């Protein structure tokens, strides 16, 4: 996989968090409607599962497999079959599972990118990455929990707006860190 600087990664993640927070705050009704429909959105599921499959194949392509090198083709076929099979046979909460796998892969990118940075501020991203790994595993094993979390988040409009403000503040922190520290 191509290398990315910590500053650029933090900037992209920050802009994404700010955009998500501002959109949720300014268009609350549309954002709530989208969030409630997301767990069972098959189109989003296809995109996230296939995107995660391609990303994982790219990671695998760049890895040294030592003793398992002769099985590389078998791993690739297994990953392709798993991704396509999930899209065909596992349509229940497909978007949740795909998002969970993407979150775990993004966490790997964050940890790999922050590994050698000297500033302690990198721990903001590392902590977020570990939270993504835990929630990704949790949502993969029990995807209905994302639906429940979304229902809780959207049950009260003021709660939803507070969460959106939190996303925005976190995104601004990441943008500031990308320019000032990383």
What would your notes on this structure say?
With 182 residues, the chain is mainly alpha-helical. The chain has a domain at 6-40 and 94-180. It is 80% helix and 0% strand. It is built from 8 helices and no strands. The longest helix is centred in the last third of the chain and has 24 residues, at 157-180. The chain is flat, with a radius of gyration of 18 Å. The model has no long low-confidence stretch (mean pLDDT 91).
Name the features:
8 helices, about 180 residues, mainly alpha, single chain
Average residue pLDDT: 91
Query: What's the total count of β strands?
Result: 0
Round the Cα radius of gyration to an integer and report it: 18 Å
End-to-end Cα distance, whole Å, is 21 Å
Strand content: under 5%
* Pattern of helices and strands: HHHHHHHH
- Large-scale geometry: flat
Describe the main β-sheet briefly: none
Number of helices: 8
Spans of at least 5 consecutive residues whose pLDDT stays below 50 are none
User: What is the percent of helical residues?
Assistant: over 70%
**Which structural class fits the helix and strand makeup?**
mainly alpha
Task: Indicate the topology.
Elements: H1 6-26, H2 28-37, H3 42-62, H4 72-89, H5 94-114, H6 122-141, H7 144-154, H8 157-180
Helix pairs in contact: 1-2, 1-8, 3-4, 3-5, 5-6
């Amino acid at each position: 996989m191509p290398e990315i600087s910590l500053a650029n990664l933090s900037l992209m993640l920050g802009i994404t968090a700010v955009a998500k927070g501002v959109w949720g705050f300014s268009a609350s009704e549309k954002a709530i409607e989208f969030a409630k429909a997301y767990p069972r959105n098959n189109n989003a599921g296809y995109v996230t599962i296939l995107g995660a499959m391609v990303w994982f194949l790219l990671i695998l392509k760049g890895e040294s497999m030592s003793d398992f090198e002769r099985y590389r083709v078998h791993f690739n076929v297994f990953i392709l079959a798993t991704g396509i099979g999930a899209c065909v046979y596992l349509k229940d909460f497909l978007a949740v599972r795909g998002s969970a796998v993407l979150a775990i892969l993004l966490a790997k990118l964050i940890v790999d990118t922050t590994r050698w940075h000297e500033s302690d501020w990198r721990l903001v991203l590392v902590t977020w990455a570990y939270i993504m790994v835990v929630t990704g595993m949790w949502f993969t094993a029990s995807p209905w929990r994302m639906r429940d979390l979304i229902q809780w988040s959207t049950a009260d409009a003021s709660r939803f707006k507070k969460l959106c403000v939190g996303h925005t503040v976190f995104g601004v922190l990441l943008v500031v860190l990308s320019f000032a520290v990383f």
